[in-house]
What we know:
Elements: H1 2-20, H2 22-41, H3 48-67, H4 69-72, H5 76-85, H6 88-118, H7 125-150, H8 156-183, H9 192-218
Helix pairs in contact: 1-6, 2-3, 2-6, 3-6, 3-7, 3-8, 6-7, 6-9, 7-8, 7-9, 8-9
Amino acid sequence: MVIHQLKILLLKDIRLELKQKYAINGILLYVLSTVFVSFLSFERILDGKTWNALFWIILLFSAVNAVSKSFVQEGQPRQLYYYTIVSPLALILSKILYNALLMGIISLLCFGAFVVFLGNMVESTPLFLFTILLGGWGFSGVLTMVSAIASRTSNNFALMAILSFPVVLPILLIVMKVTNAALNGGGFADNWSPLMALFLLNIMIAALASVLFPYLWKD
């Protein structure tokens, strides 16, 4: 029952995005313009750490802009309608999966923009791509739950920025460490521990969202 509802809700979000292209077009413009401004600001990126830090700064803000609309754009009448026909578990998991898919696309677009404008400094591309996709999954879980909490308040965007930063910080520290190793030619074997920690952290975030969201949904 939950899996069937999850599938329907996920397909609904994907179809709406393909029809409106609101998030993808807006974030694509944001990423390209930000990377291009960085290209104009720097004559050249001095080292890999600067490249890596700039990449995650842009990707983090792109994630906040994209995922923040998960529940904020859903009006009260639509949320009430969802409350009567679907389980809260199916709703929150569908939002997390959709945002994880969206973050995967945004991560690849951001990496492509960096390669075009600022050059490719990554020596271990498979590790780097795997890490940004795993990090995008973590961002989607955290920001989706925070978006659900912030949607219950009038000043939702400010509250989301305040609540999301301390929760996103552990994920950000891990992914920056691993991607920095990827820039220096590190492989999966050398970064097994932080990758496993990131995977388990993502699982824990999804589990906590599944447990806590039903109580928020009843309010």
